[in-house]
Structures are given as structure tokens and as C-alpha cells.
Amino acid sequence: MTNxxxxxxxxxxxxxxxxxxxxxxxxHGIAKLLGYAERAPGFADPIGLGPELGFALVVxxxxxxxxxxxxxxxxxxxxxxxxxxxxxAALIHHAADPWPKRELPLLFFTxxxxxxxxxxxxxxxxxxFRSRKERSATRxxxxxxx
Length: 146
Description:
By secondary structure, the chain is an all-alpha fold. The longest helix has 32 residues, at 3-34. The protein has helices at 3-34, 36-39, 51-71, 75-93, 99-118, 125-140.
């Protein structure tokens, strides 16, 4: 990949991460976190974990994991709970509902899948750690090493 192409890919991943992660956190996660005590007991239980545990896992995905993705920290790992939750929401919880109820979780799934596959990109906390590690390895390489 050329340097210009790599830069454009990293900028695109930055926009995708901040957009998808930020929208999931702000549009869905914060409200669930703030209303946790009231909403948890009556939360749907589509996979049999119990409403409280199911709600806790959804809040974990929509708040912590979405924030990690937006920051680009532990990005690939943080996308896994989000993708799993979105599949459960679209294919199990809303399976009998009309298309508009399944569309949003599938749209979020579609946004987070490339992040899982490609990583966070250069403009992320993960990218910062990677560049520090590469600079450190370059400084400690013996003279004449490739």
C-alpha cells in the first residue's frame, strides 16, 4: 500500500470508528447506562442469560466497547461484543419484527465489521502504540540489520 493510500485508509478508519462508536455510545449506550436500575429487570432475554445479565452485556458493548472503538484502543477486541450483540438484536430479538426494527442493528454490524477486519488504523491509540513499538525496535536493532 502506498503512503498516500495508507493515510487515506487510516483517515477513513478514523471517521468510521469515531462515527460508529460515537453514535452507538451517545445514541444508545449512555441512555441505557443512566437508566440501568430501571431498565435491567424488564430487559428482553432473547438468548436465555436472564434480563439483568443480558442488559449488563448490552451496556458493556454499547458504552465501554463503543468508547474503546471510537478511541481506537483494543479496537479489534472491542468490536467483537458489539458485533455479537448486533447479530443477536437483528436475527434473534427482532427476528419476527418488520424490517425497520432489524435494519439499525444490521447497519451497525455493517459499520463495525470492517473495523474488526482492518483494525483501527494509524490515527488511533492502537496506532500510536504500534508506532512507538516500531520506533523502539528500530533503535535497538543491531547495526547492519535489515
